[in-house]
Every structure is written in structure tokens, then in C-alpha cells.
Amino acid sequence: MDATVFLKAIPDPAAPPESFAFDGGCPDTSRVPFVLGPFEENALELGLRIAEGTGGSLRAVAMGGPEQDKSLRTALALGATAAVRVDGPPSWADPVVAARLLSAAADRLGVVEVLVTGRQAGDWDRSVTGALLAGVRGLPYLPRVFDAVAEEGGLRIAQEVAGGTRTGLLATAAVLSVTNAPTTILRMPNVRALILATRRPIDVVEARSLLGEAALRERLVDEGVSARRLGRAGRRVVGEPADVAKALVAELEAQGALPGARP
Amino acid sequence: MVFQLTDEQAAVVELVREFVTREVLPVASRLDRNERPEDCFSWELVEKASAAGLRTLTLDEEYGGSGVDFVTTALAVEELAKGDMGLAVVFAQTWKLAQTLQLAGTAEQRARYLPAYAADPRGLLAITFTEPDTASDYFVPHDGARYATTAVEAEGGWRLNGLKHFISNGNRASLYIVFAQTDVAQSLEHGSTAFLVPRDTPGLSIGRVHDKLGERLANNAEVIFEDVFVPDADVLGEPGQGFRVQQTFFPASNAYAAATVLGVAEAAYDRALAWARQRVQGGKPIIQHDSLASDLAELRMWLDATRLYVLHAAWAGDHPEAWDPMLGALPKVLASEVGWRVLTRAMEVHGGYGYMKETGMEKLLRDAAAFLHSDGVNRTLLLKAAKHLR
Fold first, then answer.
1. Where are the domains of chain B?
2. CATH 3.40.50.620 residue window(s) in chain A
């Protein structure tokens, strides 16, 4: 089974505060070392397990500048067969646009059956990319996965759910969003493999070549809309999960916060 | 002149740092506290380092290693020593001797020994210069200096007899480079020979394992030779040229020793800085007191300068055209003196806490003390360097 893992390097959370410069806008992270995000480490480990367990291959995708390359090289050192970095998206890129870019980059690496993301990025903690990626590709989305074992007919997936865990057989392409657990602690690469990985090329592709300039600038999700427009703290939606989901979608549509919807 | 790590060097440093964080720091203090020196050593750490490819870091790629240069090795030693000095010594010795074997060994010797070393997850190397009465003599030889360990010609080889002591990895190595007197009429400078001796050679045994103040995760032991037969094929270099082997094929040895104590000093400095930022006395974090802040700035200055000197020495080892023989003696002197200064002052920054075992400063102090003499007593190394001024 072939898998693609999506990686994101983030400013090192252990970096001392004086490493960051502030000019009133976004923090300047040019003097901060970047490290692979903690949940992306989990995603990479699970991606490796899936590839190894099924006799398939793993590819790695990242988006951003050269600060992302080290994480891709770690993936190569651990056994990923190819790596691609999407260069040049606006730093404010819309999450849906980002998901479309990542999806297009994955397609450059070939047909994939399983797409693996971390549960949430370690910098903004938004936890949206996996679900949006599933939406872009029209695939099922499995959140909080912590194990995936190959068996007859597919992958036995283990997930965290409210109040415990559940397992199920995945027999189709899907997006897995991986959480932290003992089974997803990233292994250490071998130093020789890491050195060899520094000599391997990373496929760098311009974002505009994947989607086009206009599409890159689309703003489909306005995350600030609810707080500003509601004029109130929010609304608590309770009930059966399916009903809650429908109510939330309706609320977001009313706020104009979903693609294609405007209040 | 570029003062920047290559991508490969940065990758090695980061991997060693991760190894230290994951595997070394969680166990180092516990191992250090064991009463018996043998119990301070950990085969588990060696095997984990093997799995990560670290044990064979300096072995050429054709044998399955990473074949890194002297600068990268020094960086790895320094980073490992931030986690534990003893473990850094275990690997610094092994890394150095693998490089020596590759430089000084014949093609036949390399083919015979290096694949076996690569394949054994516990494969460590040791070198045996030091004897109870021969120590500084092999750094600054004089006409009367001899190894008490002798090698006498026999049919097809040599018979070794004698005792070496204080040998790093002495009781753990699977292969030794042994220096012995082969012409007692000559000083060791002209009458000694280097031999390759596998651990399982009949007549080779281990004596005491020395109980040390610090650097306890490395074992130092006596190695005893009783009528040990070594075939001619295992002479390293030429008979009678042992001192030349020592002088020629260990260019970065002193830099590695320096990097070892430097790593410990940097660990102490980092702890002192973190402590100064969080410890409040006089109504503010103590780093806000000018005298203490300037103290830390001074330590940083010494560490940065030492690091540049150490890496310069390692770099010169990689570039023989730039080699200055004084670099084979002085970096360790500077690093150990600076290390001791940094350790004592970093401990003072901690106040009473620094003296308590709970902060770990006392372990670092005990470790740093090792290199005031290890790899050559400092005054002896200054004499060795001074010879090049005359």
C-alpha cells in the first residue's frame, strides 16, 4: 500500500524567546531553528509502519521554504522514496488552498492510497489540513489515528474516540490524521542514511505552477468571521454527532465561512 | 573562510543530539552512581548507538560506515559529551582508532579487521600506550624512555609481555592497538612498534578495572600480555616505527580530547544560564545582576574561543597542508583549563544548589576533572608543543 505523509517543520518550541523578533506583525523566525512538528513526527512514523507493513512505499510532502527540507530529508533517511516541497505559497494561504496545493503535490509523486497527516500543526494548532485534504480529494477522513496494521483486505486502524478507542478495517483510500501514542513515536534515523539523504535532491515545485496565481490568492475560509460578526461569545451545539455536524455546517454557512457561501 | 557547518555536519550533530536526549540523558546519572566501575558502563547504549550508525561514524563508506572527516567527528564528540563524558570517551576512542586503522593499516589489515568491526554491534576499539611507569614519556620522549611492555621476535611474528593500565575501553574492546618496546637498546622513540591485537588472542587478559572520580560511563582497565603471539601481518606500520605511527596517524586525537571536555563545559554553561534566568534573588532573576551576567558572558567568550580552536585543529587534521604540530598538543590544554574554569564558575552560579547532587553540577565537575590529565597531562603537552618553538 502506497502512502504519502504530509510534514510541517515549525519554529522549535524549545527555542529561547530571544530567538524571535517582533515587528508588530508576524514574529520574525529567521533566527529560529525549525524542527518537525510533534504530530508530524507521529504521522511520519505511522506512514513508515503502513509502508513497511504492506510492502508499499512512502512519499513525503511539505510546503514552505527551505526550512522544510530538513524534515523531508529525515523522511528520506527513514525510508521515504521521494520528497516534494511546495515552494512559494503566500504565508497567509487559505487552508483550503493549502490543502489543494498539498493534494496536487501528492499527485506529482504518483498514485497514493493512504494520505497521512499529523493531528494538528505544532505552531497554529488549527487541526484543519487533514479534514480539508479529505474534502479536496473526496476521501474518508479518519481523525486521531494511533495505529495501522496491515491485514487481509486492508488496514486495521486504531483511533482515539471520546471515552476510549476503536478499531476498524480500512479497505479504501483515506486520509488519516495521526495523534501521539507510544505506537507513533518517531524512530531515530541511521546516521549514514541521514548523511546520504542530505545528498539526495528534493523536488521543489512552485505553488503557482500547481494551482495558478489566481487560485493561490483565493480566500475561502475566514476564520475570524464568527467572533467578529456574531457579536457574542458563540453558541454551544449539543446532540447526536450527526445532528451537531449539520447544525455546525448550517451555522458556518450562515456566517459565510465555508467555500462558496457568502452571508 | 566559512564558519558554517555543512548540511552533512549539521545532520550528524542533530542526530547525536537526539541520541543524547533520547538515550543518554535519561540513564547517565543513574549509571554514574553505580558503585562498581563495571556497572557504570552500558552495552545497551553501545548497541543503541550501533543501531543509529554512530559506532561506525568514522568507518569508510565502503565498509558500511559514514566515513566522516575529523571536523565532523570532533563535532560529534562534543555533542555526545554534552550528554555524558564517559560515553563520549568510549566512542571518541573507537572513532579515532577506526580512522587510524584506515590511515595506517595495510589493505590486507583493513580487509581483515574493518568488516568484523563494522558487523559487531558491540565492536569497540582501544589503544594501549600507558603503563604504570611510562606515561608522559611517550608524549615527550627522552633517551632513557622505554615501554616496559616488550615484543620479542619469534618465528612468524612477535611475543608480547607486559602490562598496560588506565586504558580507555581496556576491558570492552574487541581490538587493540598495542605499543611495545621491540628494541630495548633504543628509546621508545626509535625502538617501539605498534601491533594489532584482537581481544581473544591467547595470553591477553584484563586486570583491574579502575575506579574513577568521574567519566564513569567509560571503563579504564589494565590490559595484560603474557606471551601473546602476534603475527608479522599484525604489525601496524613498520617494526621500530611505533612512535612514527603515533605521531603521524593520530592527527585529531588531541582535538577529540578537547572536544570531549568542551562538551561537558558547554553543558555546564547551558545549565548555569538557564538557572540564572529562573533563579530569583535580590528581587529579580540573578542574571539581571550585572556581575553575574558579565561572568556568564565571560564564560561564553572562553567557550566560543575554545570551540574555534578545537575545530581549527580538527580541520587542520583534514587538511595536512595546513597542519601545525602544535595543534596536536595545545587544544586539549586550552579546553581542559577552560572547562575547569567554566565548571567551577557554573557551579558557583547555582549557589548551594550547585553543590547538591540533585542539580547534576557535581557530576559535570567530576567529569571535567578527568581531562586535566587525560590524553596527556597539561604541563607535559605544553612541553611537547614547546619543542616546536626551539
1. 7-122, 126-245, 251-389
2. 3-219
CATH fold group of domain A3-219: Rossmann fold (3.40.50)
Min Cα separation A195/chain B (Å): 5
User: Which residue type, as a one-letter code, is found at position B99?
Assistant: Q
Task: For domain B7-122, give the CATH number.
Answer: 1.10.540.10
Helices (H), chain B: 7-19, 25-32, 37-40, 43-51, 70-83, 85-104, 107-119, 188-191, 242-248, 253-278, 290-318, 330-349, 352-355, 361-369, 378-386
Provide the 8-state DSSP code for B22. I
d(CA A178, CA A146): 6
Cα atoms in the 13 Å half-sphere on the side-chain side of B222:
14
CATH level 2 (architecture), domain B126-245: Beta Barrel (2.40)
A90-99, B32-41, B264-273: lowest mean pLDDT where?
A: A90-99
Structure confidence by residue, pLDDT tens digits, B139-159: 898 999 999 999 999 999 999
- A73–B contact, CB cutoff 8 A: yes
> B84 φ, ψ to 5°?
-165, 130
Q: What is the pLDDT of residues B3-57, one digit of tens each?
A: 899 999 999 999 999 999 999 999 999 999 999 999 999 999 999 999 999 999 9
Cβ-based contacts of A192 with chain B (< 8 Å):
53, 56, 61, 64-66
pLDDT in tens, A110-163: 877 899 999 998 887 888 899 999 999 999 999 999 999 999 989 999 999 988
